């Protein structure tokens, strides 16, 4: 197989890493906009939705072209398979960022909760997992993703805890219903993003070792 | 894990004069399966293939040590009838090599050599062999025309029919599609898949996609050694040896 293929493959991997980073930043900045009621920033994140869609299509297209032209095998095939999953998961994460950004304007005039919520902490955990996935993919190193099962368990526990807390707020004070309902969605998006990170970690494990693991 | 072996080699070594062309090859070829041998030019895969029906005997400077068992019998034992061995282990070569005779005579030649005289019986063998080689429908009306008038792909399937006519157990194929266009190649690949119902096929190919498509087991050879042998999907998805990985991903070869 030609060097051209491996050059193209490396470039695809590099661009996929950048795309995943872009999606990760959309989620991070949408959460910052939400926590700070920064509508300007939210609008700015929201406007990136076209870009992430375009990049997704372009990267997928390049991946299919490499398969069609070179029929990659072994490690190369596993990298391509993992890359396709990375692109899909990263786009999803970016779109959660877009959806969260879209909520900010609706919450502008809604009363805030007096007490601190665990959502920022949950966001840090999930974004940490996404960061580690990107590093593992980029460097082909398993270390950053080896403790994903307990990390995802924590994220799942936080999601349930936030859900219960929001239901309590809504019952206690109907004025908080709008914000609580939106926060339930935010927590759900974060929980799903954590699951996407786990799926990516499973695929990266397969890419590196050729063996499948299950992160439950 | 392999299924019931039809051919086994134990510590097989072969020299061309001082060149140690096969080095301690031990492997089992499973019955009714397709086994592919891959590797860069000069790695010994064709030499190994030619060991299975003792075609290397025809080369003066060859020395062979080790054991090859066909159905648990040593093919180098003193009482082995090489003609019978080659009947059991047929071969199809890289370039189609039909005899300059009619289609019918090409297929009937082998059975005749092995003593079939009855015309009805010969007709039936010719038809069945051409059917098994997926060629009958294309040549049924031109059985007595020259085989050299057939297309390359048809000639190669005729050579396969010629091999099938003597009812072999194993069919060796040395780059059987390298001289064929993609459509003729696809027909041969489909045929190989059908043949494994009744025969064991061992194929040498440079085309890794072809090895991946047609075979159940794959052996990767390099510089006279069998580096890795395993189920085809494992070899192409997750090879254990770095050399195999590097070869099939095109990093050398």
Quick structural overview:
Chain A is an all-alpha fold. Helices cover 81% and strands 0% of the residues of chain A.
Outline the structure in words.
The complex is a heterodimer of chains A (216) and B (253). Chain A has helices spanning 3-35, 39-46, 49-70, 74-107, 119-139, 148-172, 177-209. Chain A has a single domain, classed as Methane Monooxygenase Hydroxylase, Chain G, domain 1 (Up-down Bundle), CATH 1.20.58. Chain A has seven helices and no strands. The mean pLDDT of chain A is 96. With 253 residues, chain B is α/β, with parallel strands linked by helices. A six-stranded mixed beta sheet of chain B has the order 6-7-8-3-9-10, sandwiched between helices. Chain B has a four-stranded antiparallel beta sheet with strand order 2-1-4-5, with helices on one face. Classes of the chains: A mainly alpha (216), B alpha/beta (253). Chain A binds chain B through residues 1-2, 5-6, 71-78, 209-211, and chain B through 208-209, 212, 236-239, 244-245, 248-251.
């Amino acid at each position: 197989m030609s060097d051209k293929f491996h050059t193209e493959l490396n470039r695809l991997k590099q661009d996929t890493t950048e795309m995943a980073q872009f999606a990760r930043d959309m989620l991070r900045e949408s959460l910052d906009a939400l926590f700070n009621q920064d509508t300007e920033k939210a609008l700015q994140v929201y406007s990136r939705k076209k870009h992430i869609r375009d990049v997704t299509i372009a990267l997928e297209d390049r991946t299919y072209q490499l398969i069609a032209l070179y029929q990659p095998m072994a490690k190369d095939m596993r990298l391509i398979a993992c890359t396709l999953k990375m692109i899909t998961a990263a786009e999803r994460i970016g779109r959660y960022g877009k959806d969260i950004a879209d909520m900010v304007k609706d919450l502008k005039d809604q009363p805030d909760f007096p007490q601190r919520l665990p959502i920022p902490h949950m966001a840090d955990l999930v974004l940490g997992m996404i960061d580690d996935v990107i590093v593992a993919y980029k460097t082909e190193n398993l270390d950053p993703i080896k403790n994903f099962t307990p990390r995802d368990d924590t994220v799942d526990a936080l999601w349930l805890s936030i859900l219960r807390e929001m239901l309590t707020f809504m019952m206690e004070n109907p004025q908080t219903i709008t914000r609580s309902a939106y926060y339930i969605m935010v927590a759900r998006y974060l929980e799903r993003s954590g699951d996407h990170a786990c799926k990516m970690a499973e695929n990266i494990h397969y890419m590196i070792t050729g063996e499948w693991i299950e992160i439950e | 894990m392999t299924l019931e072996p039809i051919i086994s080699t134990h510590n097989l070594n072969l020299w061309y004069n001082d060149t140690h062309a096969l080095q301690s090859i031990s492997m089992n070829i499973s019955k009714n399966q397709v086994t592919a041998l891959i590797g860069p030019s000069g790695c010994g895969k064709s030499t190994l293939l030619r060991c299975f029906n003792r075609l290397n005997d025809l080369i003066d400077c060859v020395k062979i040590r080790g054991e090859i068992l066909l159905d648990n019998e040593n093919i180098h034992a003193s009482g082995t009838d090489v003609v019978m061995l080659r009947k059991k282990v047929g071969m199809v070569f890289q370039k189609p090599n039909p005899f300059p005779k009619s289609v019918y005579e090409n297929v009937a030649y082998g059975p005749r050599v092995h003593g079939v005289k009855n015309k009805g019986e010969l007709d039936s063998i010719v038809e069945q062999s051409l059917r098994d080689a997926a060629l009958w429908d294309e040549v049924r009306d031109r059985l007595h025309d020259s085989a050299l008038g057939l297309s390359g792909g048809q000639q190669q399937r005729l050579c396969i029919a010629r091999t099938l006519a003597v009812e072999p157990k194993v069919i060796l194929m040395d780059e059987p599609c390298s001289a064929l266009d993609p459509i003729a190649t696809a027909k041969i690949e489909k045929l190989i898949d059908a043949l494994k119902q009744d025969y064991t096929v061992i194929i040498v190919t440079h085309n890794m996609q072809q090895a991946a498509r047609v075979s159940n087991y794959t052996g990767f050879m390099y510089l006279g050694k069998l580096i890795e042998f395993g189920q085809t999907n494992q070899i192409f998805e997750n090879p254990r040896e770095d050399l195999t990985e590097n070869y099939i991903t095109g990093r050398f070869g």
